[in-house]
Design brief:
The protein is an alpha/beta fold. It has a single domain, classed as HUPs (Rossmann fold), CATH 3.40.50. The protein contains five helices and five strands; from the N terminus they run βαβαβαβααβ. The chain has a five-stranded parallel sheet with strand order 3-2-1-4-5, sandwiched between helices. Helix 3 runs parallel beside helix 5. The longest helix has 25 residues. It is globular, with a radius of gyration of 15 Å. The N and C termini lie far apart (31 Å).
């Protein structure tokens, strides 16, 4: 059913919750697992150290990707592809989806509500609205019944 599963990661608890589901789908469908981290240089404050800050963010992104790749290897996912891309997070994810013919996106959400959601926006919400690919949204702490 799925050949290519994408899990964006920023290393947060929300992203980590999505990783388990993405790996499960990759194993279940013998699909390639794609792991992407997006660095948004626009959010960096003007600084003479901007280049170093960007390098640090990219290094942190690669570390987050490596943690996911290790989990996937331990689960015996056959194909793992990864990338650190630059730009607004939802745009980077959407471009990756298109460029790699992704069949399923698995994303975490912080579950913000009200004013926080309005002010901060939601990368996951934007991806859900702007892609034709199925998106599985995972909450880090699902509500108890």
């Amino acid at each position: 059913m799925y050949r290519d599963v994408l899990v964006p990661t920023d290393g947060s608890d929300a992203a980590e919750a999505a990783v388990e589901h993405a790996i499960d789908h990759a194993v279940r469908y013998d699909a390639a697992l794609h792991v992407v981290h997006v660095v948004d240089p626009v959010t960096l404050p003007p600084s003479p150290n901007g280049g170093r800050i960007l390098e640090t963010l990219e290094r942190q992104g690669r570390a987050a990707i490596e943690r996911v790749a290790q989990q996937a290897e331990n689960a015996e996912v056959r194909t793992i592809e990864s990338a650190v891309v630059s730009g607004p997070p939802h745009t980077g994810i959407l471009e990756y989806i298109d460029e790699h013919d992704i069949d399923l996106v698995v994303m975490g959400t912080h579950g913000r509500r009200g004013l926080d959601r309005f002010l901060l926006g939601s990368v996951t919400e934007r991806v859900v609205r702007l892609t034709d690919v199925p998106v599985l949204v995972v909450h880090p702490n699902p509500p108890s019944e």
